[in-house]
Amino acid sequence: MNKGTIRALKRFSVSITAAGIASAALAAGAQASHFVNLAGIGVPGGDQAVPYPSAIPVSGLTGKVAKVNPTISGLNNEFDDVQMLLVGPGGQTTLLWRSVCQNGINFSGPTYLFDDAGAALPAMNCPGSGTYRPTDLDQSPEPFTAPAPQGQPYGTALSAFNGTNPNGTWNLFIESTQAGGSGSITGGWSLDIETVPDAVVQTPKKKKCKKKKHRSAESAKKKKCKKKKR
Fold this sequence. Notes:
Layout: H1 3-23, E1 31-37, E2 41-43, E3 54-58, E4 64-73, E5 75-77, E6 82-87, E7 93-98, E8 107-108, E9 111-119, E10 130-132, E11 135-136, E12 168-176, E13 183-185, E14 189-196, H2 217-222
Parallel strand pairs: 7-11, 9-10
Antiparallel strand pairs: 1-14, 2-13, 3-12, 4-9, 4-14, 5-8, 5-13, 6-7, 6-12
């Protein structure tokens, strides 16, 4: 085998390995889907965002939710006293953002992806674009204004949506709890949803009756296996 053939085989082997790594990112039978609402969201000080809520309709997915990752794009100006609540089609909730980044520094366009495995957002000196977990640092939280769900406490992790039906309307409620400077979300928001097939219920097999050796005739009659009539 010449050197050129060996190099070609190595390249082929590397490409197969890379493909295997990519396919392993999702569990067997899982599907990943992306949904967006690119409309901007205004956040006036001391009031509900416009629109309230901002909605993303989801349809055509099969199976149940295995993972949800919302992304909020293009935060601008002040978000000192803002709270954000994600509500799924089945009414499950996750509080994404409350009492974080309370330093009065104006935002200039960062994008935040939320994932349970990310780092928590800080109370002060909010970092730039990145992946962070839902964070609530409010010791005396205020409820969201209706039509947002009124039952507190709200969910604290995105895993609250796992096992639910992904189809329907997902709502993002954003509200400023203190009068003051206003902000905006110029890039809208999106949802990455991973689904897995519904669990297959397997009928347990009946145990076969095993005949015991060296038992009396009387005992054999009492414990005799009854054959099913066909």
